[in-house]
Amino acid sequence: xxxxxxTSKTFxxxxxxxxxxxSQRLFHDYAxxxxxxxxxxxxxxxxxxxxxxxxNLTKIWINGDHYKWRAMRTFGIEEKYITGDAxxxxxxxxxxxxxxxxxxxxxxxxxxxxxxxxxDIDILLNSNxxxxxxxxxxxxxxxADFSCRNLIKNMNVEVVCTTEDxxxxxxxxxxxxxxxxxxxxxxxxxxxxxxxxLSDTYLDYLEKLSxxxxxxxxxxxxxxxxxxxxxxxxxxxxxxxxxxxxxxxPFRTFTDSEIEIIxxxxxTKKQLSxxxxxxxxxxxxxxxxxxxxxxxxxxxxxxxxLRNNNAxxxxxxxxxxxxxxxxxxxxxxxxxxxxxxxxxxxKLTKTILYNLNPADNEVMATMIGNYNDGKVKGKMQFGSxxxxxxxxxxxxxxxxxxxxxxLISCFIGMLTDSRSFLSYPRHEYFRRVLCNLFGQxxxxxxxxxxxxxxxxxxxDICYNNAKEYFRF
Length: 472
Description:
The protein is an alpha/beta fold. 49% of the residues lie in helices and 9% in strands. The strands form two sheets. The chain has a seven-stranded parallel β-sheet. Strands 6-7 form a two-stranded antiparallel ribbon. Mean pLDDT is 96; it is low at 1-5.
């Protein structure tokens, strides 16, 4: 194959993913210019606070990206060139070698969309073009125009909401708030480590929580007191959201005395059964969710991940390095019981359910309808396809399930859920998929050729609904 073919122009054109004139008009005239509210991500706030500039393309684009790491491992790239001690340029060369063979994986779309939107690089990435692309992007990254704050601003981002543990000082958020950065940066309270009592590191975590809250945690009540103080602290720093990353929402009946006994057993390092663990988790989740309701917060549940499957590699590299997959947990019954327990006491706040198993899409789409009470538009949300499902097929299935069984017009749209400052074109990707679905149905006569109506709903999904829902 000739060098000219290997470095041919990218396929990311103006009408990428837009299959007809209706889709094209919906995207270009209604969706594309809407600001971005990125209401859930994992961007490092210290880098925003310090307005980091990145030394090269590998550091901003490959380091920490377990999507890319999984693809490289599948392609037979040695770990040395993924998370190991190879040079940044060597790692990039191995990624470039992999890219042509990611065809039909969303990585192929994201890679070229990001190169084009951030760096105006309009050629396909492969081994032949790797040096040219690396050098050009790296040279740009080392300028002030490509600092992480400018990367956010240049993508028309209005709000960024990161995710922090209750023990976080939020010092970086305070620094950002007191700076001249025009984008609002908030946080979400993620207390998973305080909930997962069966974790091997649970007691170590309690010590840290005790220290930061200045509460001696020697009972279940004192644990709740410590968490409540951290909720106060987060709220005082502008937080209005929580987030939970759980395989499933547990629900077991319990008594207060049982929970105290379970907590004391764990404090004294005695073995707990799964039933005891789930009783404790049910209790503390109900406590936290009642606090969110009291504070008029929004709660998020990311459900369905089967984490740390490869014990050997997890022991070497640790969590969040690419060894997770979709789980096949039973979701409906316990989730319904949990939400019902809150709703029965009129203590169910705005809730977003994110689903990782596409087999459960219809479960989630119908579950939210059980607890919409007419007090708030779209109070219960079936969140955008996330993680393994934040690609064209996954987004389409989520949108269709919600459309068929709920009101897509009330949907709060896309988020990045990313650790990368180069992820914002995923909002464009989502908007193109969304506009194409509506446009196809307009062409088939299944929706009216009424751009005032359909265009308004597109803009609501892209921005307006989230703006109203989150009140940032």
